[in-house]
Amino acid sequence: QGFPATSKTTTSTSTTANGAGMVVLGMATRVAAQPQRALLDRRANAGGRSRVGARTVCNAQRVEEKDRMESSVRWAGETDVLSKIVNAAISNAVLYEGIMKPMARRTLIKTAEKNGVQWRDDASKLEATEEVYSLYNKLRDPTVKYPDYYLQPFHAYTEGNLCWQAAFEAESATYSMALRVWPDEGMKWEGAQDRLRASYVGCITAHIKDHNLPSPKRIVDAGCSVGISTRAVHAAFPEAEMTGLDLSPNMLAVATYRDADEASCPQKMPGDHASLRQRRRWVHGKAEATGFEDDSMDLFSLSFVIHECPQQATRDIIAEAARVLKPGGVFVMTDNNPQSSVIQNLPPALATLMKSTEPHSDEYYTLDVEQALRDAGFTDVHSEASDPRHRTVLGTRS
Question: What is the mean pLDDT of the chain?
């Protein structure tokens, strides 16, 4: 239990696929190493070819520009050789279904359970809870039309987020993700999760304070999943009315169940209490077409959402945020930071596994989110490195 079905292959096909997979990862590793060696050579020799005056400055500028170009995420996009190798591997059905998907899941679950996250036990408990299925029927809006990008496999689930397995495992996956942010600090998963959420909330409160904005009274957490981010943001603004919005009724059913039965939560959110839950609702809907009234929200939050969206969907979500936010309202998102040295220097094998479960990864890493916000009319746009792996991007609705 806890693993999706993978495509059935014969022994010979499976052996061939495993061999091919190792070849692909080996090629990726060699390709990744080439520019790093070249970069070191350039830095060592740049000054030697031109010793004085403007020629020295010009050479230094060229090296600096090449360094900057090579500081991007090399395994994302359509032009880099390493990215092409990774994408080719992912597009191979035998490699993806037979190796990458199960390998990615095994890596996630092994890491989580090694660090005290009860991944399979917690999923089993939710699966055995009848109330969750009743809540699904109450929350599901049959008029919601799912965009094509949402119907693709995500996170090694064939049905993406529209399945019970994804919903039952979402909490554990989230707890495990936080542990990867501070791998060398000996933190337990509870402390890592609290720290992750506190860093995000801290960016929001700092933006509000720095720009003399009022405390938000109406908040939407779009793409809320099972509600972990929703509860964290709501605890920071306890007087606000909070809406958790998501396209997956399965996820929303788990979120609602956790609100109704606080004792069932694997982790208690600091500051979350019964009075907040009375001012919190869960809505089945799309972030790019919320159905909310114009100028009706004070804060529009997206936590680890847009890496799962193609660029046009992200632009549509930003446009929707501009529509529903009041003047002076705040847009905020957090996700992987393309400028993080941790993200930039992911080992090719790990980058391949990660991309194999994130179909829109390339589009996320090549989108200028800050510029997209400015294009939609937001002001005071800025990005903060909220932790070693993630960034928080904020803007004010003009």
Answer: 82
pLDDT at residue 270 in the model: 74
What tokens does 15 get?
A: 């052996």
Question: H helices of the chain, where?
Answer: 11-45, 53-69, 81-91, 93-95, 101-114, 119-127, 130-139, 164-179, 189-210, 228-236, 249-260, 274-277, 311-324, 341-344, 348-356, 361-365, 369-375
Output DSSP code: residue 371: H
End-to-end CA distance of the chain: 50
- Residue 87, classified by CB atoms within 10 Å of its CB into exposed (0-12), middle (13-18) or buried (19+), is buried
The residue assigned the tokens 């094509």 is: 148
Tell me, what amino acid is at 336? N
Half-sphere exposure of 17 (CA within 13 A, CB side): 22
Alpha-carbon span 123 to 328, nearest angstrom: 41
> How far, in Å, CA of 283 to CA of 247, rounded?
9
Statement: residue 209 has pLDDT above 50: yes
Instruction: Give the three-class secondary structure for 282.
Output: strand
* Contact criterion met (CB below 8 Å) for 325 and 379: no
CA distances in angstroms from 68 to 64, 88, 365, listed in the order given: 6, 26, 15
Query: Which structure tokens are listed for 315?
Result: 């632009």
- Residue 96: predicted pLDDT: 67
| 267 and 193 Cβ atoms separated by less than 8 Å | yes
The neighbouring-strand residues paired with 381 are: none
SS3 letters across 213-262: CCCCCEEEEECCCCCHHHHHHHHHCCCCEEEEEECCHHHHHHHHHHHHCH
Strand partners of residue 267? none
Paired residues of 276 in beta bridges: none
